[in-house]
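A reminder from the course coordinator: this example appears on the midterm review sheet, so study it carefully.

Given structure:
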């Protein structure tokens, strides 16, 4: 059996050369929104509908992210949501750095443990329908 060996120096050089590639692949999460708009909103006050839901709203929004735009990093603590993707390809980047791409017809949800941001890397707008239970600020 023929054995292949690699020296520690060669292995270290390979690992160090990957560092810049990993750094380039990771993008700092933006705090604000760019190229983002809400085109339609429908709200139901849940306090008058369900006991114990005072101050909460069921909210449906149609959201658009223009090419090169993004929705800044945000948490869904106290704001669970479900999303349906209508148009374009949306890249969602989670707090741990993992990414997931969504296409028209895809669905997803966000729970109290979800912190993420959205990015449109495509050449066409991303349009999605987001429904959440939102704590109304008065």
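Designed residues:
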């Amino acid at each position: 059996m023929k054995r292949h060996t690699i020296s520690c120096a060669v292995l270290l050089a390979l690992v160090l050369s990957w560092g810049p590639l990993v750094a380039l692949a990771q993008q700092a999460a933006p705090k604000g929104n760019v190229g983002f708009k809400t085109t339609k909103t429908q709200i139901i006050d849940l306090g008058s509908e369900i006991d114990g839901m005072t101050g909460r709203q069921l909210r449906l929004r149609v959201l658009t992210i223009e090419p090169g735009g993004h929705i800044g990093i945000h948490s869904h603590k106290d704001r669970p949501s479900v999303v349906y993707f209508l148009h374009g390809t949306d890249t969602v980047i989670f707090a741990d750095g993992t990414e997931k791409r969504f296409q028209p017809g895809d669905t997803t949800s966000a729970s109290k443990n979800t912190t993420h941001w959205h990015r449109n890397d495509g050449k066409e707008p991303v349009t999605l329908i987001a429904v959440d239970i939102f704590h109304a600020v008065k």
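The beta strands are 34-45, 56-75, 81-87, 90-94, 99-102, 107-110, 115-119, 126-135. The mean pLDDT is 87.
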